[in-house]
Protein backbone atom coordinates (compact mmCIF):
# COMPACT_ATOMS: atom_id res chain seq x y z
CA UNK A 1 0.00 0.00 0.00
CA UNK A 2 3.02 2.32 0.21
CA UNK A 3 2.56 3.43 -3.42
CA UNK A 4 -0.74 5.02 -2.38
CA UNK A 5 0.59 7.15 0.44
CA UNK A 6 0.38 10.88 -0.24
CA UNK A 7 -0.53 14.07 1.57
CA UNK A 8 -4.20 14.04 0.49
CA UNK A 9 -4.81 10.32 0.64
CA UNK A 10 -5.51 10.21 -3.10
CA UNK A 11 -4.15 7.44 -5.27
CA UNK A 12 -1.75 9.49 -7.37
CA UNK A 13 -1.54 6.78 -10.02
CA UNK A 14 -5.18 7.23 -11.05
CA UNK A 15 -6.18 10.86 -11.57
CA UNK A 16 -9.11 11.57 -13.90
CA UNK A 17 -10.84 14.64 -15.22
CA UNK A 18 -14.18 14.69 -13.37
CA UNK A 19 -16.96 13.57 -15.69
CA UNK A 20 -19.59 12.59 -13.13
CA UNK A 21 -22.47 14.72 -11.89
CA UNK A 22 -24.31 15.09 -8.61
CA UNK A 23 -28.05 14.48 -8.28
CA UNK A 24 -29.89 17.10 -6.24
CA UNK A 25 -32.55 15.22 -4.29
CA UNK A 26 -35.33 17.15 -2.55
CA UNK A 27 -35.52 16.23 1.13
CA UNK A 28 -38.83 14.62 2.05
CA UNK A 29 -39.34 16.78 5.16
CA UNK A 30 -38.30 20.38 4.53
CA UNK A 31 -38.63 21.21 8.23
CA UNK A 32 -35.58 19.09 8.98
CA UNK A 33 -32.21 20.80 8.83
CA UNK A 34 -28.89 19.52 7.44
CA UNK A 35 -30.38 16.44 5.80
CA UNK A 36 -28.40 14.40 3.29
CA UNK A 37 -29.37 11.81 0.67
CA UNK A 38 -26.78 9.27 -0.43
CA UNK A 39 -26.07 5.57 -1.10
CA UNK A 40 -29.28 5.03 -3.12
CA UNK A 41 -30.56 2.06 -5.05
CA UNK A 42 -30.34 1.92 -8.82
CA UNK A 43 -33.34 3.42 -10.65
CA UNK A 44 -36.02 0.86 -11.51
CA UNK A 45 -39.48 0.69 -13.02
CA UNK A 46 -42.50 0.69 -10.74
CA UNK A 47 -45.71 0.37 -12.74
CA UNK A 48 -44.51 2.62 -15.55
CA UNK A 49 -42.74 5.17 -13.36
CA UNK A 50 -39.00 5.13 -12.76
CA UNK A 51 -38.19 5.41 -9.06
CA UNK A 52 -35.09 5.32 -6.91
CA UNK A 53 -34.71 4.57 -3.19
CA UNK A 54 -32.54 6.98 -1.23
CA UNK A 55 -30.87 6.91 2.18
CA UNK A 56 -31.94 10.09 3.94
CA UNK A 57 -30.46 11.19 7.26
CA UNK A 58 -29.23 14.13 9.26
CA UNK A 59 -25.67 15.16 8.44
CA UNK A 60 -24.42 14.38 11.94
CA UNK A 61 -26.78 11.54 12.92
CA UNK A 62 -26.33 8.22 11.15
CA UNK A 63 -28.90 6.64 13.48
CA UNK A 64 -31.62 8.81 11.91
CA UNK A 65 -31.33 6.95 8.59
CA UNK A 66 -34.48 6.10 6.69
CA UNK A 67 -35.33 4.96 3.17
CA UNK A 68 -37.39 7.37 1.06
CA UNK A 69 -38.76 6.71 -2.44
CA UNK A 70 -38.10 9.34 -5.10
CA UNK A 71 -39.08 9.93 -8.70
CA UNK A 72 -35.83 9.31 -10.58
CA UNK A 73 -36.42 12.02 -13.18
CA UNK A 74 -37.54 14.85 -10.87
CA UNK A 75 -35.67 13.66 -7.74
CA UNK A 76 -38.74 14.60 -5.70
CA UNK A 77 -39.94 12.40 -2.83
CA UNK A 78 -43.11 10.53 -3.73
CA UNK A 79 -46.24 10.78 -1.65
CA UNK A 80 -48.31 7.76 -0.64
CA UNK A 81 -45.31 5.44 -0.58
CA UNK A 82 -43.85 3.56 2.40
CA UNK A 83 -40.92 5.04 4.30
CA UNK A 84 -38.63 2.59 6.10
CA UNK A 85 -37.23 4.11 9.26
CA UNK A 86 -33.93 2.86 10.72
CA UNK A 87 -32.77 1.47 7.36
CA UNK A 88 -29.68 2.35 5.30
CA UNK A 89 -28.16 1.74 1.85
CA UNK A 90 -31.17 0.46 -0.15
CA UNK A 91 -30.82 -1.77 -3.22
CA UNK A 92 -33.14 -3.27 -5.82
CA UNK A 93 -32.53 -6.94 -6.59
CA UNK A 94 -34.98 -7.40 -9.49
CA UNK A 95 -37.95 -9.52 -10.46
CA UNK A 96 -38.09 -13.16 -9.44
CA UNK A 97 -40.29 -16.17 -10.13
CA UNK A 98 -44.05 -15.55 -10.03
CA UNK A 99 -43.44 -11.83 -10.53
CA UNK A 100 -42.16 -11.14 -7.02
CA UNK A 101 -40.08 -7.97 -6.80
CA UNK A 102 -37.35 -7.76 -4.19
CA UNK A 103 -35.48 -4.87 -2.69
CA UNK A 104 -33.32 -4.68 0.39
CA UNK A 105 -31.65 -2.36 2.86
CA UNK A 106 -29.51 -2.52 5.96
CA UNK A 107 -31.70 -2.35 9.06
CA UNK A 108 -30.04 -0.80 12.09
CA UNK A 109 -30.70 -1.00 15.82
CA UNK A 110 -29.59 1.63 18.32
CA UNK A 111 -28.90 1.87 22.03
CA UNK A 112 -31.86 3.77 23.56
CA UNK A 113 -29.59 5.66 25.94
CA UNK A 114 -26.65 6.61 23.73
CA UNK A 115 -28.30 6.40 20.27
CA UNK A 116 -25.23 4.51 19.09
CA UNK A 117 -25.78 1.85 16.42
CA UNK A 118 -25.52 -1.58 18.02
CA UNK A 119 -26.53 -3.85 15.15
CA UNK A 120 -26.87 -3.83 11.38
CA UNK A 121 -28.09 -6.54 9.03
CA UNK A 122 -29.56 -6.95 5.56
CA UNK A 123 -33.33 -7.13 5.32
CA UNK A 124 -34.92 -8.20 2.05
CA UNK A 125 -38.50 -7.21 1.25
CA UNK A 126 -40.78 -8.55 -1.45
CA UNK A 127 -43.90 -7.13 -3.02
CA UNK A 128 -46.14 -7.69 -6.01
CA UNK A 129 -47.39 -5.03 -8.39
CA UNK A 130 -45.94 -1.66 -7.44
CA UNK A 131 -44.88 0.30 -4.39
CA UNK A 132 -46.50 3.56 -5.46
CA UNK A 133 -49.85 4.36 -3.92
CA UNK A 134 -49.26 2.23 -0.84
CA UNK A 135 -48.26 4.60 1.95
CA UNK A 136 -48.89 2.01 4.66
CA UNK A 137 -46.45 -0.43 3.12
CA UNK A 138 -49.03 -3.18 3.61
CA UNK A 139 -48.02 -4.92 0.37
CA UNK A 140 -44.42 -5.22 1.58
CA UNK A 141 -43.43 -8.48 3.19
CA UNK A 142 -40.18 -9.28 4.94
CA UNK A 143 -38.63 -11.99 2.79
CA UNK A 144 -35.45 -12.74 4.70
CA UNK A 145 -32.98 -11.23 7.15
CA UNK A 146 -29.26 -11.83 7.14
CA UNK A 147 -27.13 -12.59 10.18
CA UNK A 148 -26.43 -9.79 12.69
CA UNK A 149 -23.58 -7.38 11.93
CA UNK A 150 -23.33 -8.51 8.30
CA UNK A 151 -24.39 -6.57 5.21
CA UNK A 152 -23.87 -6.22 1.44
CA UNK A 153 -25.68 -9.36 0.30
CA UNK A 154 -27.26 -9.33 -3.17
CA UNK A 155 -29.51 -11.86 -4.89
CA UNK A 156 -30.67 -12.36 -8.47
CA UNK A 157 -32.94 -14.78 -10.31
CA UNK A 158 -31.01 -17.22 -12.47
CA UNK A 159 -32.52 -20.09 -14.49
CA UNK A 160 -33.80 -22.64 -11.96
CA UNK A 161 -32.25 -21.05 -8.86
CA UNK A 162 -31.52 -17.87 -6.96
CA UNK A 163 -27.88 -16.76 -6.97
CA UNK A 164 -26.49 -15.09 -3.86
CA UNK A 165 -23.34 -13.00 -3.63
CA UNK A 166 -22.45 -11.83 -0.15
CA UNK A 167 -19.72 -10.14 1.86
CA UNK A 168 -18.77 -12.08 5.00
CA UNK A 169 -16.85 -9.95 7.47
CA UNK A 170 -15.18 -10.79 10.75
CA UNK A 171 -13.75 -14.15 11.78
CA UNK A 172 -15.27 -15.50 8.56
CA UNK A 173 -14.27 -13.11 5.80
CA UNK A 174 -11.79 -10.79 7.47
CA UNK A 175 -12.30 -7.12 6.60
CA UNK A 176 -14.80 -8.13 3.92
CA UNK A 177 -14.66 -10.72 1.12
CA UNK A 178 -16.74 -11.78 -1.88
CA UNK A 179 -18.45 -15.16 -1.43
CA UNK A 180 -21.04 -17.05 -3.46
CA UNK A 181 -23.78 -19.61 -2.89
CA UNK A 182 -27.10 -20.61 -4.42
CA UNK A 183 -30.55 -21.38 -3.08
CA UNK A 184 -33.46 -23.08 -4.78
CA UNK A 185 -35.91 -20.18 -4.62
CA UNK A 186 -37.03 -17.27 -2.46
CA UNK A 187 -38.73 -19.63 -0.01
CA UNK A 188 -35.45 -21.39 0.78
CA UNK A 189 -33.35 -18.22 0.96
CA UNK A 190 -33.71 -17.50 4.69
CA UNK A 191 -32.59 -20.93 5.85
CA UNK A 192 -29.76 -21.26 3.32
CA UNK A 193 -28.52 -17.73 4.05
CA UNK A 194 -28.13 -18.35 7.76
CA UNK A 195 -26.69 -21.82 7.17
CA UNK A 196 -24.09 -20.33 4.84
CA UNK A 197 -22.76 -18.06 7.57
CA UNK A 198 -23.02 -20.79 10.19
CA UNK A 199 -20.95 -23.21 8.11
CA UNK A 200 -18.36 -20.51 7.27
CA UNK A 201 -16.95 -22.43 4.31
CA UNK A 202 -14.00 -20.47 2.91
CA UNK A 203 -14.14 -22.44 -0.35
CA UNK A 204 -17.07 -20.18 -1.26
CA UNK A 205 -14.76 -17.14 -1.48
CA UNK A 206 -14.22 -15.65 -4.94
CA UNK A 207 -10.53 -15.05 -5.48
CA UNK A 208 -8.71 -12.55 -7.64
CA UNK A 209 -10.75 -9.45 -6.77
CA UNK A 210 -9.04 -7.98 -3.72
CA UNK A 211 -5.38 -7.34 -3.03
CA UNK A 212 -3.76 -7.55 0.38
CA UNK A 213 -5.11 -4.86 2.69
CA UNK A 214 -8.31 -4.37 0.66
CA UNK A 215 -11.90 -5.27 1.39
CA UNK A 216 -15.07 -5.14 -0.67
CA UNK A 217 -18.40 -6.64 -1.61
CA UNK A 218 -21.20 -6.81 -4.21
CA UNK A 219 -23.71 -4.07 -4.98
CA UNK A 220 -25.66 -5.35 -8.00
CA UNK A 221 -26.01 -8.64 -9.91
CA UNK A 222 -27.11 -8.62 -13.55
CA UNK A 223 -27.80 -12.02 -15.17
CA UNK A 224 -26.27 -12.61 -18.61
CA UNK A 225 -27.08 -16.26 -19.31
CA UNK A 226 -27.52 -19.56 -17.46
CA UNK A 227 -24.07 -19.54 -15.84
CA UNK A 228 -22.87 -15.96 -16.08
CA UNK A 229 -23.69 -12.73 -14.33
CA UNK A 230 -22.22 -9.25 -14.32
CA UNK A 231 -21.26 -8.12 -10.84
CA UNK A 232 -21.08 -4.47 -9.89
CA UNK A 233 -19.23 -4.15 -6.62
CA UNK A 234 -16.90 -2.06 -4.55
CA UNK A 235 -13.36 -2.47 -3.31
CA UNK A 236 -11.82 -0.38 -0.57
CA UNK A 237 -8.55 0.36 1.17
CA UNK A 238 -6.91 2.91 3.45
CA UNK A 239 -4.07 5.33 2.87
CA UNK A 240 -2.11 7.59 5.17
CA UNK A 241 -0.87 11.14 4.78
CA UNK A 242 2.79 12.05 4.85
CA UNK A 243 2.50 12.70 8.57
CA UNK A 244 1.27 9.07 8.95
CA UNK A 245 -1.27 10.39 11.49
CA UNK A 246 -4.21 10.82 9.13
CA UNK A 247 -5.97 7.84 7.60
CA UNK A 248 -8.25 8.02 4.55
CA UNK A 249 -10.77 5.48 3.33
CA UNK A 250 -11.07 4.88 -0.41
CA UNK A 251 -13.94 3.11 -2.15
CA UNK A 252 -14.28 2.62 -5.88
CA UNK A 253 -16.81 0.88 -8.09
CA UNK A 254 -15.74 -2.20 -10.02
CA UNK A 255 -17.37 -4.57 -12.48
CA UNK A 256 -16.65 -8.09 -13.71
CA UNK A 257 -18.26 -11.21 -15.15
CA UNK A 258 -18.64 -14.11 -12.74
CA UNK A 259 -19.04 -17.71 -13.91
CA UNK A 260 -21.34 -19.43 -11.43
CA UNK A 261 -20.40 -22.89 -12.72
CA UNK A 262 -16.63 -22.57 -12.41
CA UNK A 263 -16.82 -20.16 -9.47
CA UNK A 264 -14.31 -17.89 -11.18
CA UNK A 265 -14.09 -14.41 -12.65
CA UNK A 266 -14.15 -14.34 -16.45
CA UNK A 267 -12.14 -11.59 -18.10
CA UNK A 268 -10.76 -8.50 -16.42
CA UNK A 269 -12.02 -6.48 -13.49
CA UNK A 270 -12.80 -2.95 -14.61
CA UNK A 271 -12.96 0.25 -12.60
CA UNK A 272 -16.38 1.84 -13.15
CA UNK A 273 -16.05 4.90 -10.92
CA UNK A 274 -13.78 6.37 -8.28
CA UNK A 275 -13.48 9.63 -6.38
CA UNK A 276 -11.52 11.46 -9.07
CA UNK A 277 -14.43 10.99 -11.51
CA UNK A 278 -16.37 13.53 -9.39
CA UNK A 279 -15.74 17.02 -8.10
CA UNK A 280 -14.54 17.10 -4.48
CA UNK A 281 -17.21 17.10 -1.78
CA UNK A 282 -17.27 18.04 1.89
CA UNK A 283 -17.65 14.55 3.32
CA UNK A 284 -19.58 13.56 6.42
CA UNK A 285 -16.26 12.75 8.08
CA UNK A 286 -12.78 13.81 7.03
CA UNK A 287 -11.67 10.32 6.05
CA UNK A 288 -14.63 9.75 3.66
CA UNK A 289 -13.72 12.29 0.97
CA UNK A 290 -12.55 9.57 -1.42
CA UNK A 291 -15.49 7.20 -0.95
CA UNK A 292 -17.56 6.15 -3.97
CA UNK A 293 -19.99 3.52 -2.73
CA UNK A 294 -21.46 1.98 -5.87
CA UNK A 295 -25.19 1.37 -6.20
CA UNK A 296 -25.06 -0.19 -9.64
CA UNK A 297 -25.95 0.37 -13.28
CA UNK A 298 -29.17 1.70 -14.74
CA UNK A 299 -30.70 0.64 -18.08
CA UNK A 300 -28.90 1.23 -21.37
CA UNK A 301 -29.91 4.49 -23.06
CA UNK A 302 -30.25 5.27 -26.78
CA UNK A 303 -26.53 6.09 -26.96
CA UNK A 304 -25.41 2.75 -25.58
CA UNK A 305 -24.52 4.28 -22.21
CA UNK A 306 -25.50 3.17 -18.74
CA UNK A 307 -25.74 5.45 -15.71
CA UNK A 308 -23.47 4.33 -12.88
CA UNK A 309 -25.11 5.45 -9.63
CA UNK A 310 -23.13 5.83 -6.40
CA UNK A 311 -23.02 7.49 -3.00
CA UNK A 312 -20.23 10.07 -2.70
CA UNK A 313 -18.53 10.90 0.59
CA UNK A 314 -21.60 9.80 2.58
CA UNK A 315 -23.31 13.09 1.63
CA UNK A 316 -24.27 13.05 -2.06
CA UNK A 317 -25.49 10.88 -4.92
CA UNK A 318 -23.34 10.79 -8.04
CA UNK A 319 -24.10 9.64 -11.56
CA UNK A 320 -21.60 8.84 -14.27
CA UNK A 321 -22.56 7.70 -17.78
CA UNK A 322 -20.30 4.95 -19.07
CA UNK A 323 -20.24 2.67 -22.11
CA UNK A 324 -22.31 -0.43 -21.43
CA UNK A 325 -19.75 -2.76 -19.80
CA UNK A 326 -21.91 -5.79 -20.61
CA UNK A 327 -21.97 -5.17 -24.36
CA UNK A 328 -18.87 -7.20 -25.17
CA UNK A 329 -20.05 -10.16 -23.10
CA UNK A 330 -23.39 -10.83 -24.71
CA UNK A 331 -21.79 -12.54 -27.72
CA UNK A 332 -18.84 -14.17 -25.97
CA UNK A 333 -20.02 -15.97 -22.84
In short:
The protein is mostly beta strands.
Unreliable spans: 1-13
- CATH fold-level assignment: Tachylectin-2, Chain A
- Please report the distance between the alpha carbons of the first and last residues: 34 Å
CATH architecture: 5 Propeller
Number of domains: 1
CATH superfamily: Glycosyl hydrolase domain, family 43
Number of strands: 20
Biggest sheet layout? 8 strands, mixed
Q: What is the typical, i.e. mean, pLDDT?
A: 91
Instruction: Please work out how many helical segments DSSP would assign.
Output: 1
Structural class: mainly beta
Radius of gyration, in angstroms, nearest whole number:
19 Å
What is the share of helical residues? under 10%
Shape: globular
Q: N-to-C SSE series? A: EEEEEEEEEEEEEHEEEEEEE
Q: What distinguishing features does this structure have?
A:
eight-stranded mixed beta sheet, 20 strands, Tachylectin-2, Chain A, single chain, mainly beta, disordered N terminus, five-stranded antiparallel beta sheet, globular, 1 helix, 333 residues
Describe the structure in your own words.
The chain is mostly beta strands. The chain has a single domain (2-323), classed as Tachylectin-2, Chain A. Helix content is 4%, strand content 47%. It has one helix and 20 strands. Strands 1, 14, 15, 16, 17, 18, 19 and 20 form an eight-stranded mixed β-sheet that branches. Strands 2, 3, 4, 5 and 6 form a five-stranded antiparallel β-sheet that branches. Strands 7-8-9-10 form a four-stranded antiparallel β-sheet. Strand 11 and strand 12 form a beta hairpin. The longest helix has 14 residues, at 186-199. The two termini are 34 Å apart.
Amino acid sequence: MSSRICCTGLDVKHIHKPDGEFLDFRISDQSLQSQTVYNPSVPFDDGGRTIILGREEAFNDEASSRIVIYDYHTLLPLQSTPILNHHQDPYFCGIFEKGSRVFGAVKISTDPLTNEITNWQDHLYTYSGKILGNSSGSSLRLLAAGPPKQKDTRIVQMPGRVAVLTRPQGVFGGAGSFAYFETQNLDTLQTDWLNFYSEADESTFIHGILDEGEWGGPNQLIPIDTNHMYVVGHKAWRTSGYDMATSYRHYKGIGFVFNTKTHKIQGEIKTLAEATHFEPVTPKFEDLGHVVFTSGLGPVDEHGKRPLIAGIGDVKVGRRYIDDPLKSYYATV
